[in-house]
Structure formats: C-alpha cells, structure tokens
Design brief:
The protein is mainly α. It has one domain. 91% of the residues lie in helices and 0% in strands. Helix 2 packs antiparallel against helix 3, helix 2 runs parallel beside helix 4 and helix 3 runs antiparallel to helix 4. The radius of gyration is 50 Å and the shape is rod-shaped.
C-alpha cells in the first residue's frame, strides 16, 4: 500500500505543471488551510456548545427566579391574610370586652333602678326584662371567656355576675311577694 502511494505521489510531482518547491509550498498551504479550517470548526463547535450551555443555564436561573418569586408572593399573601385575621380577632376581642361591659351595666342598672309598678303586668314586664338582660349578659360573658386566658379574671367576672344575679333574685322576690 505504501509503495502504491509513493508511486502516485512521485507521478503527481513529475507530471505537475509546478516546480517541486511550488508543489511542496502548495501542499503546505493546503495542509495549513485544512488545519485552520478544522481548528476553526472545532472552536466554532465549542463556542456553539458553550452558547447552548449558557442558554440552558440562563433558562434554569430564570425558572428558579420565577419559582422564588412565586413562593415569595405566596408567602406575602399568606402573611397579609394572617395579619388581617389577627386584626379581625383583636377587633372581635375588643368588641366582646365592650359588649360585656355594656350588657353588665344594663343589667345592673335595670336591677338597681327603682321601678314603680302599679299592676301585675308591670311586675311581669320588669322581671322579664331583668331575665332578658341576664341572658344577654351571660351570652356576652361566654364570648368574653373565649378571649381571656386568665382564670383569675374569669373567676372574678363569674363572682360579679353571681352577686348581681343574687340581687336580681332578691328584687324578683320583693316584687312577687
């Protein structure tokens, strides 16, 4: 095989219209050009691969940013909702405290007021209103107890309600006897 190749190269060099050095120079130029084209193609392929890698990395970064942004927005939304719920609970708690005080005051005021009664119907109305005010006070007290964790305060509220209820019983017995 080598012999055939050497004969072909020799024949080509002899039959060439160029001188020996021109032919060698031409082969060297063609060889250098081929090496340059191969190196250029490799570099171009490497750059293209790096560019594709860069695009893939950029896409992953953007995807991660989107997930992070979505999670952040979700957390902000939950935090805002939690803040609104907490604010609403404080508002309900405040209303429960105010409502209890109002109902307690109305009940006490009705019991302590000197009622001029002229007939049994007036007595019944007075007692029914006392019972109604007592029921309202008890409902507001139950709501208040949902928000108060201090047993001492709760027990004191119950004692006060008990004292007032005893006053109501005495007042009822005064009118019914």
């Amino acid at each position: 095989m080598n012999v055939i190749m050497e004969e072909h190269i020799t024949k080509t060099l002899i039959e060439s219209p160029f001188s020996f050095w021109e032919t060698i120079f031409l082969f060297a130029m063609i060889s250098a050009l081929m090496q340059l084209i191969i190196a250029y193609s490799k570099e171009k392929g490497k750059n293209l691969a790096q560019k594709e890698d860069l695009v893939e990395i950029t896409n992953k970064i953007k995807e991660t940013e989107m997930k992070f942004t979505d999670q952040t927005e979700n957390l902000k939304s939950q935090l805002a909702l939690l803040a609104n719920v907490k604010s609403e609970i404080y508002s309900i708690e405040r209303d429960a405290i105010i409502g209890f005080n109002e109902k307690l005051y109305q009940w006490i005021s009705h019991i302590l007021q000197h009622q001029k009664v002229e007939c049994n119907n007036d007595i019944d109305l007075y007692i029914n209103k006392m019972d109604d005010l007592y029921d309202k006070e008890q409902a507001s007290e139950a709501l208040l107890e949902l928000f108060i964790d201090d047993e001492i305060i709760i027990n004191n509220i119950r004692k006060i309600s008990g004292y007032i209820y005893n006053m109501q019983i005495e007042k009822n017995s005064f009118y019914t006897s």
